[in-house]
Amino acid sequence: MQEYVELGEELVFVAMGVASVIALAVFAERLIYYKKTLGKKNESYLSEVRNSLQEEPEIHWKTDAGEESIYTRFIQFALRQLKLGRKGLDESLEGQILSEKLELEKRLPILNTLGNNAPFIGLLGTVLGVIKAFYGLGTLGSSGAEVVMRSISTALLATAAGLAVAIPVVMANNYFSRKAKVILQNLEILKKELLSYQMNKTKV
Q1: Is-contact 189 91, C-beta < 8 A?
Q2: Of the candidates 194, 203, 184, 174, which has an alpha carbon nearest to the alpha carbon of residue 82?
Q3: C-beta contacts of 20-23 below 8 A and 24+ residues apart
Q4: What is the mean pLDDT of residues 63-78?
Q5: Range list of β-strands (E), 39-98
Q6: Alpha carbons 69 and 123: distance in angstroms, whole number
Q7: pTM higher than 0.85 for the full model?
């Protein structure tokens, strides 16, 4: 049984290492994606579009925000729908928002899962380490105190590793989730203003 405990303890540290690598890869991928999606010129472009919807009789927007900008994609999609004069603009824009939401939240469940479970994996390592320590204490008696202390130290290290992985992962997940929420709220605002624009244009 002791062999399985030692193997489990080693696997916990391996799992922590793999989890940290996966979390780092997801963080880097999402950071690059959000940087492309939200360039520096996006906020000014968003304000320009909203002002055009509210003030100008026709909308012809040009932007250097970049084709990969989420707002650029959304506005270009809306303009195509308006030019074609299709009905059901509300449903079309809502579908586009849902499509963008899927992209914004892509891989975030991985961070969420790692952030929620890393402490428990570390705790499992601690439990296994304590079992190992008490087994050594029962086998070696008082003469094995040094070995027992080392085992307990390693056990506590597993919990520390779990927290070291979980805390930054949770922070990263919250950061990207907040970014996604703000973007989606802006898209909802744009949708409402575009529908209002279409309604006013129809009345004219």
Answers
A1: no
A2: 194
A3: 20/165, 22/110, 22/114, 23/110, 23/111, 23/114, 23/165, 23/168, 23/169, 23/172
A4: 71
A5: none
A6: 42
A7: no
Nearest to 156 by CA among 119, 120, 125, 115: 125
Domain map (residue ranges) of the chain: 2-203
Q: Do residues 162 and 119 make contact, with C-beta atoms less than 8 angstroms apart?
A: yes
Percentage of the residues of the chain whose pLDDT score is greater than 90? 35
Residue 173 contacts residue 115 (beta carbons within 8 Å): yes
Provide the 3-class DSSP secondary structure of residue 81.
helix
Structure tokens at 121: 């994996």
Q: What is the pLDDT of residue 65?
A: 44
Torsion of CA 126, 128, 133, 138, to 10 degrees: 150
Amino acid at 18: V
Q: Report d(CA 184, CA 98) in Å as an integer.
A: 9
Question: What's the length of the chain?
Answer: 204
CA distance 155 to 150: 9
